[in-house]
From TrEMBL:
Pfam families on file: Glyoxalase_4 (PF13669)
GO biological process: L-methylmalonyl-CoA metabolic process
UniProt KW keywords: Cobalt, Isomerase, Lyase, Metal-binding
Record family assignment: Belongs to the methylmalonyl-CoA epimerase family.
GO molecular function, one term: metal ion binding
SUPFAM superfamilies the UniProt entry points to: Glyoxalase/Bleomycin resistance protein/Dihydroxybiphenyl dioxygenase
Lineage of producing organism: Bacteria, Pseudomonadati, Pseudomonadota, Alphaproteobacteria, Rhodobacterales
Domain VOC: from-to ranges: 4-132
Keyword Lyase: yes
Protein name stated in the entry: methylmalonyl-CoA epimerase
Domain of life: Bacteria
InterPro entries the record matches: Glyas_Bleomycin-R_OHBP_Dase, MeMalonyl-CoA_epimerase, MMCE/EMCE_epimerase, VOC_core
Catalytic activity: (R)-methylmalonyl-CoA = (S)-methylmalonyl-CoA
Amino acid sequence: MIGRLNHVALAVPDLDAAAAQYRDALGADVGAPQELPEHGVRVVFITLPNTKIELLHPLGDDSPISGFLAKNPAGGMHHVCYEVDDIAAARDRLVAAGARALGDVKIGAHGKPVLFLHPKDFAGCLIELEEA
């Protein structure tokens, strides 16, 4: 059911500093910041030959990333995103198998439908599904 790894997301306390570190120290292809108010985040994507890294920073105190950074002030891995062919079918199959979807399908940073799955159902890892 799941396809390729789309990205690994890292919550960061300073988006500009983290983007500069990837660009300057690692020589990575760093995209422009994007604000996603419906998700409560500002993001930067780093393109790698085989996947992407997403740097996440909260847009406000009510952002889910604010809570994550309060517990992890230096930042850290937030979630992994896998591609699926049909997000509604994937959701229905996973829910029928006992997984918990966190909220409804929304449009993500790439303009495609996304859905998050509860980390307690996947060995402590928050999973994002993105329709390919």
